[in-house]
Write a structure and sequence with these properties.
elongated; seven-stranded mixed beta sheet; 9 helices; alpha+beta; 267 residues; homodimer; 9 strands; DNA-binding
DNA sequence: CTGAAAATCACCCGTTTAATCACAACCGAT
DNA sequence: ATCGGTTGTGATTAAACGGGTGATTTTCAG
């Protein structure tokens, strides 16, 4: 059980979860001390002693620490399991409230009929994953999917793919042989193939070239292409829908030329 | 489908979930427009037009909106289901990271043997609920619970109570007859009773008196008493453990005098 | 080519948050 | 009772951040 790294990470995550720096430091400090006074806490956490009290009060109000009103006061963190459970509940509740509120809103629209040349950009691993799932789920005839990085083959995706009706042709490509095998094993119903998309990788395989993430074509009328930013490893994607859509047209062309994977699957 | 209230609430919740005001307004605005330009968005959301762009960029990076890079740019929100799913995932992931990081930390301690007169204070409905569950779960012989407000009889609590081994005597009290019936129905194995605790309510039943929340006594060695703040309806509790604990001693005295509910249950 | 709208930039200002200081209440030990 | 150090609170300063506005460049339609 070391500490150096993990303490930092815990503090960071707690801040992402909405705590201030001092609050985060104090909470982590308390999980290391099991119980402690303001003085000791201040020593361990580098939080000015006089500020420990404020931080603790906030934490207490959030149900993350307990206070013993003695002199000197003693503080202790709620057991880890309880704390995470509390946080989880808190967020579940918020997301629910959001969902309800937004459900009862919508429709001001007043939309002018938009053209059909729409290509949308989106970012964020999770969001792209969700969109991929959605698209695959509503496939009626054919799904062509190329995966460029094994980290993208998540459990959820595999599940979604396996739940596809048997009427839907499922073709999945991979950039490497090993990834192909992995896919074939996880999704037995799929026709898999390797590569055919070398042209998508950067000139060289250097890391600082933006790498292909996924390429998804559903019923030849919706397409999603994603790439992975070299530095941050963040995923970004473009996404087009509609048979007449420019992107989709290009994709169909590529398929016609056998560059993506045709209706008559290889192997 | 009205709007006025819900828009406000949605914006608020989104901010609690970590978005800035402009970002929240823009997202809600987009769920009302299905699709829109910076100009229209600015009109609907009251966000300065020149700032819409920043906000949208952040939202895009979080996977909550899509951008069409045309001129003028078009924005649209990810479908509600996808958005909430994305947020949920994001938080699950953070809580997990936190759990892991903190798991790998602990133990600096250096603790001096603490006395046994510990009485801890905690706050927050969720946190107190969790603690209540924990305590009930580890009961070995006897659980005495008094509930002062029907909003405290949550599904989780009912479940926990019903999962208690048959070797544990379960006595549950309520401040009103109707609440008692409710409890008896939800937890058939329990011996229920009414009141016996009038002295816990304020002099008068006025709302501005802090009301009793719950009172829990487990195996006569751990006790938790909570009250509900008049203004905010927030719950706060004190909690003591150990047979020799002062609070616990008091509680035992009260029981011995029949003030809480004795080993030989009423009705 | 020209004017208006679109998009990006740069700056201001009030609030929040981190950090320090001054002080009164308190405690333990002589 | 007294004294030195600790403990808790409040006030204060400085830096960071978020909201708000105007100037500047780019883009597009006429």
């Amino acid at each position: 059980m070391d500490t150096p790294e993990h303490v930092e990470e815990a503090i960071e995550v707690l801040q992402q979860l909405g705590l201030k720096e001092y609050e985060a430091r104090c909470f982590v400090g308390l999980t290391r001390l099991t119980t402690g006074t303001a003085k000791r806490l201040s020593e361990v956490t580098e939080v000015p002693r006089t500020r420990v009290y404020d931080a603790i009060r906030v934490l207490e109000a959030q149900g993350l620490v307990e206070i013993q009103h003695s002199s000197p006061q003693q503080f202790r963190a709620v057991p880890l399991a309880e704390a995470t459970e509390t946080l989880r509940d808190q967020y579940e509740e918020r997301v629910d409230r959001l969902h309800n509120a937004l459900d009862r809103v919508d429709v001001v629209d007043d939309d002018d009929g938009s053209p059909v040349q729409q290509v949308w950009a989106m970012a964020g691993r999770g969001a792209i994953e969700n969109r991929t799932d959605q698209l695959v789920q509503k496939a009626a005839e054919e799904v062509v999917l190329v995966i460029g990085d094994d980290s993208l083959l998540t459990e959820d995706l595999v599940e979604t793919l396996n739940e596809l009706g048997s009427g839907v042709e499922l073709v999945i490509g991979a950039l490497t042989k090993s990834l192909q095998k992995q896919i074939q094993a996880a999704v037995p119903d799929a026709t898999t193939f390797v590569s055919g998309l070398e042209w998508l990788r950067g000139e060289n395989t250097t890391d600082d070239e933006t790498a292909i993430g996924r390429l998804l074509l559903v019923d030849r009328s919706a397409i999603l292409v994603s790439s992975i930013i070299p530095g941050t490893r963040e995923e970004q994607a473009i996404f087009g829908e509609g048979f007449g859509n420019g992107l989709v047209v290009i994709a169909r062309r590529l398929m016609a030329q056998g560059l993506i994977a045709a209706r008559d699957p290889h192997q």
